[in-house]
Specification:
The chain has ten helices and four strands; from the N terminus they run ααβαβααβαβαααα. It has 312 residues and is of the alpha+beta class. The longest helix is centred in the C-terminal third of the chain and has 44 residues, at 223-266. Part of the ABC transporter FtsEX involved in cellular division.
Length: 312
């Protein structure tokens, strides 16, 4: 902890910078001299950070996938049985011209009957009906909100029944909100655990240097001067833990990306996992460094308040 003596003629800014640089280098040196202890501390912190971050990333990908699915939701418009096929074709052309409609597929009664016969295997029972009871069906793909389009389609005089399933989206939104809240709760709990890990590690380091700190206090060293190396030690633990957490999440992403892409391709989708970008990675590293800095600051401040000599 002994800092180099300031050279004469140096400005206060240069001296301040030298003290901080020395504290940072000294903290890194102490970490390198205890590789196993450093690895254990960084590993525990990294896992505590990776769990909520992985959950948040998974929820973000699920929400992005759900948004893509919502845009492709179909609205089924069953026309009245009295509507002729020619009128159904005209209505399909009219709907295709709407800006809120991406595409329209017309399924005529004969096609619907053939599909029903093939799907159920009840050909004899269907033949016994004599006439075709099925109406024309328009399968409409919206470009925007399916519920708004469904309300418009329900007002068509030719429409007998309009079906669309929006309940699944509302339930999914509810689960996503719950998952997001759960992720933040886990982040708070595991972040507190990481803070305690750093604090305990720094506390052990303080105990080992107790006599040295006492000498510095007798010589009149300020609390900021004594605290500074430990703050940098906690910040270094945080940065290394954040980097390891990102590495673990990247490895998980690489392991899951290919099989998920193949699964999505089998359903005709181009969906792919989306990990953390450079900006998010930088934010995670800064947050992890601040977490380590805070843990070290709390422990060091508590120790200095107990050991600071008082004037009698």
């Amino acid at each position: 902890m002994n800092a180099p003596a300031p050279a004469r003629g140096r400005s206060p800014v240069s001296t301040w910078f030298d003290h901080h640089a020395y504290s940072l280098v000294a903290s890194l040196g102490r970490m390198l001299r205890r590789p196993w202890s450093t690895l254990l501390t960084v590993g525990v912190m990294a896992i505590a950070l990776a769990l909520p971050l992985g959950l948040l990333a998974s929820l973000a990908n699920i929400e992005r996938f759900a948004g893509d699915v919502q845009q492709a939701r179909e609205v089924s418009v069953f026309l009245g049985t009295e509507v002729e096929v020619t009128r159904a074709r005209e209505l399909a052309d009219e709907l295709r011209a709407r800006p809120d409609v991406a595409s329209v597929e017309l399924r005529e009664p004969e096609q619907g009957l053939a599909d029903l016969r093939e799907a159920t295997g009840l050909g004899d029972a269907i033949d016994a009906l004599g006439s075709n009871p099925l109406p024309s069906l328009l399968v409409v793909r919206p470009t925007g909100d399916e519920r708004a389009l469904a309300d418009v389609l329900a007002q068509l005089p030719e429409a007998d029944l309009v079906q669309h399933d929006a309940a699944w989206r509302e339930r999914l939104d509810g689960w996503l909100r719950f998952g997001s809240r759960l992720a933040w709760v886990l982040a708070a709990m595991l972040g507190l655990g990481a803070l305690l890990v750093v604090g305990n590690t720094v506390r052990l380091d303080i105990q080992q240097r107790r006599e040295e700190i006492g000498v510095l206090q007798l010589l009149g060293a300020t609390d900021g001067f004594i605290r500074r190396p430990f703050l940098y030690l906690g910040a270094c633990y945080g940065v290394l833990a954040g980097a390891l957490a990102l590495a673990l999440l990247t490895a998980a992403d690489m392991a899951l990306r290919t099989p998920l892409a193949e699964l999505a391709h089998s359903y005709g989708s181009s969906f792919a996992l989306q990990g953390f970008g450079l900006q998010h990675g930088a934010i995670i590293l800064v947050a992890a460094a601040l977490l380590g800095w805070l843990g070290a600051g709390l422990v060091t401040g508590h120790f200095l308040r107990q050991t600071r000599p008082t004037d009698t």
